[in-house]
């Protein structure tokens, strides 16, 4: 394995680096930020915690975006100056610089405000759809699973559900295929409780940096290790009036990024809501 590049050493970037390190499944994490002193400090702080946290991942830092070229995966996070997620024109310029430098690695947009950046990366920079995705919906799913677990007087670990569409207002939960303890969630939870959970989704968005970091770390590992894991992530689709409408869909991830898009099990009403969400983006 080569290394994982994290672009941006703000609160999110530092949290992603720490999450990858303590999970101890990748060998080298490189934290990249023009504010080199901040990136070096965070990399050193995380590295010095290795005897306590028990990991062997190596942490380094760099100031130039060219240092991301050749990575197994690249996470686009936030700047050290103000913890602002790389998005908009600034984020697009960063990706353009990366492409011109020869970057061909899969890109994970770790933030919650980078949907537009994903669409423009595909339409304007012509980055292959399979090579760029957003991991924020994974964090939202984790929060909703935790709440569902509490509702059934159990643990979110035992709950399985998928969120598709466009969070927060146009998120669609595939309640038809959701389960708790191996049983359909609808048999464990009354309809009003399910409706109550759905109504809480807008309040769960955007997830905090640690939740986003945990989600990004799992997606990055799937890409770097080629484990063919399945997650609900932001991807550019062919739906909607734009050439690249971005919404959350269940996908299979492996080396190179998105291996295939999976078809969620939705009711007719849920599918209509998903189609409407993608057409409005």
Spell out the key features of this protein:
single chain, 281 residues, alpha/beta, Rossmann fold, L-2-Hydroxyisocaproate Dehydrogenase, Chain A, domain 2, 10 helices, 22% strand, globular
Would you kindly provide a written description of the structure presented here, covering whatever features stand out?
- This protein has helices spanning 11-23, 36-48, 50-53, 88-100, 115-123, 136-151, 185-188, 191-199, 209-225, 268-280; strands at residues 4-7, 28-32, 58-62, 73-76, 107-109, 132-134, 159-160, 163-166, 170-173, 179-180, 183-184, 229-237, 245-254, 257-261.
- It is α/β, with parallel strands linked by helices.
- The chain has two domains: 4-105, 3-Layer(aba) Sandwich (Rossmann fold), CATH 3.40.50; 136-281, Lactate dehydrogenase/glycoside hydrolase, family 4, C-terminal (L-2-Hydroxyisocaproate Dehydrogenase, Chain A, domain 2, Alpha-Beta Complex), CATH 3.90.110.
- The strands form four sheets. Strands 3-2-1-4-5-6 form a six-stranded parallel beta sheet, sandwiched between helices. Strands 7-10-11 form a three-stranded antiparallel beta sheet.
- α4 (88-100) links the parallel β4 (73-76) and β5 (107-109).
- α1 (11-23) runs parallel beside α2 (36-48), α1 (11-23) crosses α9 and α6 (136-151) crosses α9.
- The protein is globular.
- The protein starts with a strand and ends with a helix.
- The model has no long low-confidence stretch (mean pLDDT 94).
